């Protein structure tokens, strides 16, 4: 598939704001024509290979992932200093479906990449949840992670196509999900 023929929905939000949850709900709207891709996946794949770690365990929500999170962030920064778009480029090479849901944009350079590559077929989404909600979902403020660039770099961005307030449950965000899915299908 020609890279330019994708419609791309980019999700961003703080830890435990519900990025994966929203990505899954969106995917249900698109079924076979959609797929979820994560910028952090090639990062984890290459990091695991270079550090002799278990790639699968870095992907799930395990203690193992949390243990390596800080070092992985630092390593990712070093790679991005050489090429800020390296992980976005890798993830797009893996895309095979018409509608791509990128569930973890974290930096302005990620947005730059998608704006440049998909100027007409792009939806930028911010997921917001209050700290109290995130804590109920298991979030604990961690110095070096929650105050790092990977969590804060997009805080100042205001021109999202949609902001989803995800403090309640799936019924509460269903209307937002429908609008986003509808807009994406218009762009196909
Ligand atoms: N609207 C919702 N209704 C019910 N549960 C939700 C909702 N949003 C998120 N959750 C739950 O909260 C938890 C955290 O959500 P999720 O994993 O999607 O967050 P995330 O932003 O992807 O987190 P991280 O950045 O840490 O990977 C999950 O258990 C998820 O099922």
From TrEMBL:
<dbReference type="GO" id="GO:0004631">
    <property type="term" value="F:phosphomevalonate kinase activity"/>
</dbReference>
<keyword id="KW-0153">Cholesterol metabolism</keyword>
<protein>
    <recommendedName>
        <fullName>Phosphomevalonate kinase</fullName>
        <ecNumber>2.7.4.2</ecNumber>
    </recommendedName>
</protein>
<dbReference type="GO" id="GO:0006695">
    <property type="term" value="P:cholesterol biosynthetic process"/>
</dbReference>
<feature type="binding site">
    <location>
        <begin position="14"/>
        <end position="20"/>
    </location>
    <ligand>
        <name>ATP</name>
    </ligand>
</feature>
<keyword id="KW-0752">Steroid biosynthesis</keyword>
<keyword id="KW-0418">Kinase</keyword>
<dbReference type="Pfam" id="PF04275">
    <property type="entry name" value="P-mevalo_kinase"/>
</dbReference>
<dbReference type="GO" id="GO:0005829">
    <property type="term" value="C:cytosol"/>
</dbReference>
<keyword id="KW-0547">Nucleotide-binding</keyword>
<keyword id="KW-0443">Lipid metabolism</keyword>
<keyword id="KW-0444">Lipid biosynthesis</keyword>
<keyword id="KW-0963">Cytoplasm</keyword>
<dbReference type="InterPro" id="IPR027417">
    <property type="entry name" value="P-loop_NTPase"/>
</dbReference>
<keyword id="KW-0152">Cholesterol biosynthesis</keyword>
<feature type="binding site">
    <location>
        <position position="166"/>
    </location>
    <ligand>
        <name>substrate</name>
    </ligand>
</feature>
<dbReference type="InterPro" id="IPR005919">
    <property type="entry name" value="Pmev_kin_anim"/>
</dbReference>
<keyword id="KW-1207">Sterol metabolism</keyword>
<keyword id="KW-0808">Transferase</keyword>
<keyword id="KW-0067">ATP-binding</keyword>
<feature type="binding site">
    <location>
        <position position="137"/>
    </location>
    <ligand>
        <name>ATP</name>
    </ligand>
</feature>
<keyword id="KW-0753">Steroid metabolism</keyword>
<dbReference type="GO" id="GO:0019287">
    <property type="term" value="P:isopentenyl diphosphate biosynthetic process, mevalonate pathway"/>
</dbReference>
<comment type="pathway">
    <text>Isoprenoid biosynthesis; isopentenyl diphosphate biosynthesis via mevalonate pathway; isopentenyl diphosphate from (R)-mevalonate: step 2/3.</text>
</comment>
<dbReference type="GO" id="GO:0005524">
    <property type="term" value="F:ATP binding"/>
</dbReference>
<keyword id="KW-0756">Sterol biosynthesis</keyword>
């Amino acid at each position: 598939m020609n890279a330019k023929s994708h419609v791309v929905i980019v999700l961003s939000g703080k830890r435990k704001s519900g990025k994966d949850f929203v990505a899954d709900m969106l995917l249900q709207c698109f079924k076979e024509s959609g797929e979820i891709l994560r910028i952090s996946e090639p990062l984890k794949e290459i990091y695991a290979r270079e550090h002799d770690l278990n790639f699968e365990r870095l992907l799930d929500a395990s203690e193992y992932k949390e243990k390596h999170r800080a070092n992985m962030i630092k390593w990712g920064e070093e790679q991005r200093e050489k090429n800020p778009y390296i992980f976005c480029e890798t993830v797009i090479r893996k895309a095979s479906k018409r509608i791509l849901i990128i569930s973890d944009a974290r930096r302005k350079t990620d947005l730059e990449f998608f704006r440049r590559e998909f100027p007409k077929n792009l939806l930028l989404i911010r997921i917001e949840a209050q700290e109290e909600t995130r804590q109920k979902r298991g979030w604990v403020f961690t110095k070096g992670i929650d105050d790092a660039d990977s969590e804060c770099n997009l805080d100042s961005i205001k021109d999202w196509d949609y902001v989803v307030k995800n403090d309640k449950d799936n019924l509460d965000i269903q209307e937002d999900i429908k609008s986003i899915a509808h807009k994406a299908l218009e762009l196909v």
